[in-house]
Write a structure and sequence with these properties.
- The structure holds 2 protein chains of 2 kinds.
- Chain A has 4 domains: about 15-115, Rossmann fold (3-Layer(aba) Sandwich); about 145-215, ATP-grasp fold, A domain (Dna Ligase, domain 1, 2-Layer Sandwich); about 215-345, D-amino Acid Aminotransferase, Chain A, domain 1 (2-Layer Sandwich); about 345-485, ATP-grasp fold, B domain (D-amino Acid Aminotransferase, Chain A, domain 1).
- Chain A has 17 helices and 22 strands.
- Chain A has helices spanning about 25-35, 50-55, 75-85, 100-110, 120-125, 130-135, 155-165, 190-205, 265-280, 310-320, 320-330, 410-420, 435-440, 445, 460-465, 470-485, 500-505, and strands at about 15-20, 40-45, 60-65, 90, 115, 165-170, 180-185, 210-215, 220-225, 235-245, 250-255, 285-290, 300-305, 345-355, 355, 365, 365-370, 370-375, 380-385, 390, 400-405, 425.
- An 8-stranded antiparallel beta sheet of chain A has the order 13-12-9-10-11-14-21-19, sandwiched between helices. A 5-stranded parallel beta sheet of chain A has the order 3-2-1-4-5.
- Chain A starts with 16 loop residues before the first strand and ends in a 14-residue tail after the last helix.
- In chain A, about 50% of the residues are buried.
- Chain B contains 1 helix and 16 strands.
- Chain B has one helix spanning about 80-90; strands at about 1-10, 10-15, 20-25, 25-35, 40-45, 50-55, 60-65, 70-75, 95, 100-105, 115, 120-125, 130-135, 140, 150, 155-160.
- Chain B has an 8-stranded antiparallel beta barrel. Chain B has a 4-stranded antiparallel beta sheet with strand order 9-16-14-11. A 4-stranded antiparallel beta sheet of chain B has the order 13-12-10-15, with no helix packed on it.
- The relative contact order of chain B is 0.13.
- Classes of the chains: A alpha+beta, B mainly beta.
- The interface between A and B is large, with 58 and 54 residues.
């Protein structure tokens, strides 16, 4: 019997799942729903009518204009659609409503199952100061700092004196690096305080900011967990996400090159992650993030109560479809992979391909994708919401695709990604493809000597040199450009078009008969 | 041999070709360019094969994809070259332009203010990212036309540093 069918009633675990998201993650979730035989309702804002996630859905509902607050963040509108579509479950993806406890409450009131944790668990982890208290009580190590939001810059300065500089200011309701400021010296604190508060207010509607000791050159290592609704919690290993720009992850991998050689650190991290999940009564898929210093000491950073952007690397080394497990858990099934039964194989790495211009300080570069070619071959996985001819909208996150490679070892995974990048074309807009080409050549990266400040310090000169074009490649590009520009601007159209059959055979044209053979 | 001038990632290059051989930087190579259609090319240079994809950027420039990276190429065309010159001359004159469509969050200066190169003038937000627009050179702010909350299209001149 398929795992999407309840063995007692013989019915599908859910009648229909509403996917309350857009872009690559909506595409990702829809695929698994369809594989499970569960009908899918998609939602879309005005600019997303032609999106890939809409085209993959069984049903699609307009939910408003481009502005997220009037569409993807509109709880009432999303639940109206769930009722209209007769969906009995909602998958929130990541971002948007995925970590919104009010949404979880509203789903419960509407009798729609949220594929994710309970409102209480989201709430306890959503406010970072509260999360810290819970973790400290569960003996999960936390970074020294203010236990709760600080009232003003003066109070922040006195805490900073206790913990010692550098300190990090963080929005209490934050995530994704917004409302965060690193402060190196006391005199820089007042202006950083104002900036962090302002950004927090704009991004999250709350200007609560707290203070933490900044860990010098930490690695970002996180543990994926799965928890069912009957009390079993399993970990699916760690991911290292130390390569970040402006506190946004850029490249993720598993296993962590640091933890891989320190089994005792891995065991302690995974144990702490499970303790963290247990302390919050956590259910469904979640991620516990830690900062790890060079001595292997680790500190709880935050818990993400949703599917992560970087979940594919875990799927590649474990062979587990996390979305399928999320759906099964939400339907009340016990964990299919109880602790100790998960096996790990090889190394997986993911590059986040953004519509950003590496030559212009990674400014977003929205626009039309005139040509699109993704890599192929064994061990390659591409998760994308983009298609050729599609325009990257200005209104949303400029993530175009996640390009992943799996191989038996880290070195081989890097080689695979390098070849995959060579086969990729995203024509029309600037993207971060060229940046990854250089990153993969950086010798310190290749040696796994990374930390969260790695990208901020810039790549080594060896990286740019190794990634530079050969004189032959340059000449070939120029010759092709000269050839393409003959006849002025018709490249992309190719050789003389085949005349339309309407023209050549117009008079003798016979319409096809349905089901006919050609 | 026919001489062709072009810009490769903004750097002027020239090559000479008669269809079967090409001379660049004083070196000659046998070249065969096979147009496979839809912007796909296979180039043989002394027997070495290079796959090239030619696409068009949204601002009308030709993009060449080779070895997994994207390069902007402009083949000699008097009209295009002069247009490019105008653009670069304009940015050298101290114009502060909107790098992408977005919203103005804050304006730190007023017309008539004296600013130094690199000083933050305006904070803009687009695609959920905040960015500082800085003075391209020392000078006096003029022509400042925006206030916080204004939306502006890509390329809009927000101010001029004179």
């Amino acid at each position: 019997m398929p795992d999407s069918v309840d063995t007692i009633s013989g019915r599908l675990v859910f009648r229909k799942i509403l996917v309350a998201n857009r872009g690559e993650i909506a595409v990702r979730v829809i695929r698994t729903c369809r594989e499970m035989g569960i009908p899918v309702a998609a939602v879309y804002s005005e600019p997303d009518r032609g999106s890939k996630h809409v085209q993959l859905s069984d049903e699609a509902y307009a939910i408003g204009p481009a502005s997220p607050t009037e569409s993807y963040l509109d709880i009432d509108r999303i639940l109206d659609v769930a009722a209209q579509a007769d969906a009995d479950a909602v998958h929130p993806g990541y971002g948007f409503l995925s970590e919104n406890a009010d949404f979880a409450d509203a789903c419960a009131r509407a009798g729609v199952k949220l594929i994710g944790p309970t409102a209480a668990a989201i709430r306890s982890m959503g406010v970072k100061t509260r999360a810290r208290e819970i973790m400290a009580a569960a003996n999960v190590p936390v970074v020294p700092g203010s236990p709760t939001a600080v009232s003003d810059a003066t109070a922040a300065a006195s805490i900073a004196r206790e913990t010692g500089y550098p300190v990090m200011l963080k929005a209490a309701a934050g995530g994704g690096g917004k409302g965060m400021r690193l402060v190196e010296r006391p005199e820089a604190l007042p202006s950083a305080w104002t900036e962090a508060q302002g950004e927090a207010q704009r991004a999250f509607g709350s200007d609560e900011v707290y203070v933490e000791k900044a860990i010098v050159r930490p690695r970002h290592v996180e543990v994926q967990i799965l928890a069912d609704e009957v009390g079993t919690i399993a970990h699916l290993g760690e991911r290292e996400c130390s390569l970040q720009r402006r506190h946004q992850k850029v490249l993720e991998e598993t296993p962590s090159p640091f933890v891989e050689t320190r089994p005792e650190v891995r065991a302690a991290l995974c144990e702490a992650a499970i303790a963290a999940a247990r302390a919050t009564g956590y259910t469904n898929a979640g991620t516990v993030e830690f900062l790890v210093d060079s001595a292997g000491r680790f500190y709880f950073l935050e818990m993400n109560t949703r599917l992560q952007v970087e979940h594919p690397v875990t799927e590649l080394v474990t062979g587990i479809d996390l979305v399928r497990e999320q759906i099964r858990i939400a339907a009340g099934f016990p964990l299919r992979y109880p602790p100790g039964t998960v096996t790990f194989r090889g190394h997986a790495m993911q590059c986040r391909i953004y519509a950003e211009d590496p030559e212009a300080d990674f400014l977003p570069s929205p626009g039309r994708i005139n040509r699109l070619a993704w890599p192929e071959g064994p061990g390659i996985r591409v998760d994308s919401g983009a298609e050729q001819g599609w325009t990257v909208p200005v209104e949303y996150d400029p993530l175009i695709a996640k390009l992943c490679a799996w191989a038996p070892t880290r070195d081989e995974a890097i080689s695979k990604l390098r070849q995959a990048l060579r086969e990729t074309v995203v024509g029309g807009i600037a993207t971060t493809l060229g940046f990854f080409r250089e990153l993969l050549e950086d010798s310190r990266f290749q040696a796994g000597e990374i930390d969260t400040g790695f990208l901020g310090r810039g790549l080594g000169p060896d990286a740019r040199e190794a990634a530079a074009l050969s004189s032959g490649e340059k000449l070939a590009a120029m010759l092709a450009a000269v050839e393409a520009s003959r006849g002025r601007g018709d490249q992309g159209r190719g050789p003389a078009p085949v005349p339309s059959r309407w023209k050549t055979r117009g008079r003798t044209w016979t319409p096809f008969v349905d089901g006919g053979n050609r | 041999m026919k001489r062709i001038e072009l810009l490769f990632d903004g750097i002027a290059r020239d090559l000479q070709t008669d269809g079967t051989s090409v001379v660049v930087d004083g070196r000659e190579a046998q070249a065969e360019v096979c147009n496979l259609g839809s912007g796909r090319f296979s180039v043989l240079l002394d027997g070495r094969q290079h796959a090239v994809r030619i696409t068009r950027s949204n601002d009308g420039l030709m993009e060449a994809w080779v070895g997994g990276s994207r390069h902007l190429i402009e083949v000699q065309d008097p009209r295009q070259l002069s247009r490019r010159k105008n653009v670069s001359a304009a940015s050298g004159s101290g114009e502060v332009r909107m790098p992408m469509p977005g919203k103005v969050l804050a304006v730190h200066v007023a017309n008539g203010d004296r600013v130094e190169q690199g000083q933050s003038l305006v904070i803009v937000e687009a695609m959920k990212m905040q960015n500082q627009l800085r003075a391209p050179r020392d000078g006096i702010v003029s022509g400042l036309q925006v206030k916080p909350g204004d939306a502006a299209p890509a390329g809009a001149t927000l101010a001029v540093i004179e």
